[in-house]
TrEMBL record:
Name of protein: DNA-binding transcriptional repressor PuuR
The keyword DNA-binding belongs to this UniProt entry's keyword annotation: yes
Gene Ontology terms, MF aspect: DNA binding
Coiled-coil segments: none
Keywords of this entry: DNA-binding
Species of the source: Clostridioides difficile (Peptoclostridium difficile)
Keyword DNA-binding recorded: yes
Domain HTH cro/C1-type: 5-61
Length: 99
């Protein structure tokens, strides 16, 4: 399924390169945003700029990026729980071996 950003960019008949020129956002970052491969969401200024150029409601576009942030936090929580369990287990093993 095409991302919201990519759909609206194509609808406006803009290439990633042209959107980059219009926004000052690098083409590679636009590509990562479209494919949800970005590490950090764009700034509020960038979201407003993209929304204006692509004629997307700013709140809808913000929600698109917030969903990615939620996914990241969810994965981080899972990772942290697993890391804590592993560290706790390793600590207990070492503690038991000291005796």
């Amino acid at each position: 399924m095409e991302s919201l950003l990519k759909y609206h960019r194509k609808k406006k008949k803009l290439t990633q390169r042209r959107l980059s020129e219009l926004t000052g956002i690098s083409q590679s970052y636009i590509s990562r945003m479209e494919n949800k491969k970005f590490k950090h969401s764009p700034t509020l200024t960038q979201i407003i700029l993209l929304a204006d150029i692509l004629e997307i409601d700013q709140l809808i576009l913000s929600e698109f990026f917030l969903e990615k942030e939620r996914e990241h936090l969810k994965n981080t929580k899972k990772y942290n729980k697993k890391a804590v369990k592993t560290l706790s287990r390793d600590f207990l093993k070492e503690y038991k071996n000291k005796d």
